[in-house]
Every structure is written in structure tokens, then in C-alpha cells.
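Lecture 7, part B: from sequences to assemblies.

Below are the input chains for today's worked example.
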Amino acid sequence: MSLLVKNIIRFILFILVQVYVLSQIPPLHQFITPYLYFLFILWLPFNISRFSLLLVSFLFGLTLDYFLSTPGLHAAPCVLIAYLRPFLINILISQEGAELNYAEPSIKSMGIAPYGLYVLVFTFIHHFYLVLIEWLHFGNFLYFIGKVTATTGISLLLIFITEMLFFRKQKFRTNTA
Amino acid sequence: MKNIFIFIRRYFNFLFFLVLQIVSLILLIRYNQTHEAVYAGVANEITGRINLQYNKIQNYFHLKENNKLLLEENTRLKNMLRTDFESPDSSRLAVLDTLVRDTLGRQRKFIWLPAKVVNNTVSQQLNYLTLHRGANQGVKKDMAVIGPQGVVGTVIDVSENFSRVMSLLHRNSKVSSMLKKGNIQGTVEWDGKDPRFITLRNIPKSTPVAKGDTVVTSSYSANFPSDILVGFVDEISKDPGSNFLVIRLKTATNFYNLEYVNLVENVQWDEQRRLEAAPVKNQ
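Predicted structure of the full complex, as C-alpha cells:
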């Protein structure tokens, strides 16, 4: 399956899962909102250009926003993590040329510790920015801190489960093949 | 000028990022203020269709809950029916209300007439009441008789100014009734022993019945309007010879002190009987 088709399917699936599964869960606590959808952006291929990365993330966030009828609320954090993604990947990739040998960020392509850090940082940034926007609209500081922490925890758990369930086989690509 | 282009090319991604951020925030702020976001109409159309598909599935899982809610609402509305609010009618109506249709175009089904009880027995096996209202005042055979507290009996004989009523406390009286909880249909009879108690039969053994449950006239009953009080469950026993319960009811009506009752005529009954008597054509 080509990367494009794969990512289009992922786009649709992540939106549907976020809207019809995670957003339908009855609220456990006011701090906890399960978010998983931004994993789509973290899974986008290495070699995508920065322009299209930003554009795809914006469209992805906006699509989710129209389902949840909050236009802009999720698009903004998506664009932020899409903008920061190449910088962090450059720092985290230890092996020379890993982004050339593997298609997309994963445990196998980056190593477990760098990949974990990568997910952790972007989950935190995403929630921080998302809740910040929410907080500027309504809410108090305790809400802000509590929600960022709790939501990040829940998201990390969900991402961990997703990584376990849908283990992505990464082919090692060489120039000769 | 050249420098500007170089600057833009160099920081293109950052500028694009800023533009997208600003667009997002403008969307968010504008939407919250006016609820008229750009493309919201188109977007709503698309997301709405997908939501509709999802709701079709989701609704299926909520059917049970919805049924319960509807049932509760129905019960609440039934409790507001006119027929549930019976007070002793002491008036003697001089002019009969024979209006067939009301102003909303609804067909009248029941006509209620007040009547005074002039004779009443409870101690016999075959108990009758006599009402001071007869054929001249619009009473017909088979009209239902309902007291302020509940069912009383059925008209069996009519003279010019009086009518005879077979009381519920009569060996041959049968009133189609149901448990108000669950609308389980049964028949109410009297065994001729104690005038305070009547018997409800033909309720399946699987039905959950509890002491104190309300029994009302059934919706299948032709001469009685539905949901008129018959009695309250007093004792439940299983009939070993059949699949039905035998439920002893305390009568809702106190037959000892009946003074005024209402006669109820089902003006659509003739039509119903004609239809039911006609041979079935489509077989």
C-alpha cells in the first residue's frame, strides 16, 4: 500500500475514532478528555515537505473541528506540532540517515527512547496549547494545570495502547532496492 | 524589494505556520461570537450526514432507554386524562351533550351522563343497582357505569325513567381489565363471597405483580373507557391447573355508599360491532 493511500485511510480512521469513540465516552472527570487524533500527525512520513506537513495538519485539525463544532480549536495545536515536528526529529534521530532508511517515525525507526520522548513532548505541547486556548475562553488556572496533566496522561496511555495494537512494520529501505 | 522576497522565501514555513495559526484563531473567535464560521454551512452538511449514519447505529442501542422514557411520558400524560379525574357529579344534566365532533375535528367516542343511584344491593350473589335515569334521558343497554372512585357495573335493562345496572359484584359480570403496570390484559370477575374483593384472572404466571398494583379497565374494553380504576392487587395466588395467576383485588369503588354515578356511552361501538360481525373477506 502506498504511503499516500495509507495516510488517507489513517486520516479518516483517526477522525472517526476521535469523534465517534473517544468523544462519545461519558465524561469521567472534568479534567479528562481522551485525545488520540494528533497521533496522525506524529505518524506522517519523514520525507513530507514542511509546507505540506503544515497544510495537512491544518486540514486534519479543521476536519475534526467541524465534527466537534469548534472550528479552529484543534486546528491551532495541530499546526503548532506540525511546525515543531521537523526540529525535534532532527535533534532526536541519532542514527545517521534514519529518516532516509525508514518511512515514518516509529519505535523501530527511531529507537524506543527517542520515539517515547518524541511522543511525550508533542502530546504535552499539543495539550498545553489546546487547553491554553480553552483557558483563555473560560476556566481558571487550576483547570488549566489539571487538565493539561490529566489529558496528557490519558493520551499517552492511549498512544501506548495504539502502538501495541497496531504494530507498524517498518521496512528498511536501501538505495539499491 | 528583492530582500523582502528573499526574506519570505527563507522564512516561508514560519510565515505559513503563522498564517495557519491566525486563521485557526480567527475561526475559533468568529465562530464563538457569531456561529457563522466560514464554510460552516457546507461543513455542517457533510458532518451532519456522517453524524446521521452514526446516529442510526447509536439510536439502536438507546431503544430500550427511549422506550422507557416514552412509557413514562405516556403514563404521565394518561394521568392527566379527564377520565382519571372523577369527582362525584351532583349535577343533573338537563340538556344532553350530543355533539359528535369537537372544534378540533376529533370524533367523540364517549358520552358521560350523570345519574343518581336509587337502589343498591351488595349482599346478594347477584347484585344490581337502580339508577334514576332511563331511556327518555338517553340511557341505553350496555352502557358502562362508573362511580367517582372507579368501575361500578353495566346497564342491563332500561325503562323510561330508570335503568338497571348489573353491579361488578355479580356472578355474571365480566370486565375486561389490565394491570396498569405493563398493560397486561385480564378479566375481572366476582366470586360472590366478599363484596370488598373481586378476582382478576387470565394474567400469565410470568407477569411481575406486586401487592398494591393498580388494575384499570383495559383498552380492549368496548363499553368502558380505558384506564378507569377497577381495584388494587391484594393477594396473588397461582392457579395450579392453568398457566394463569388468580389475583384478588380490593375494589376501587366502595359499593356501600354509592350515591351518584356516571353512565358512559360508547357512541362508536355500533360501528365497531358491525365491522367485527362482518365476515372476513380477505382470506
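Note for the exam: Chain B touches chain A at residues 12-14, 16-17, 20-21, 23-29, 31-32, 37-38, 40, 43-44, 46-47, 50-51, 54 (CB under 8 Å). Keep this in mind when comparing with the next example.
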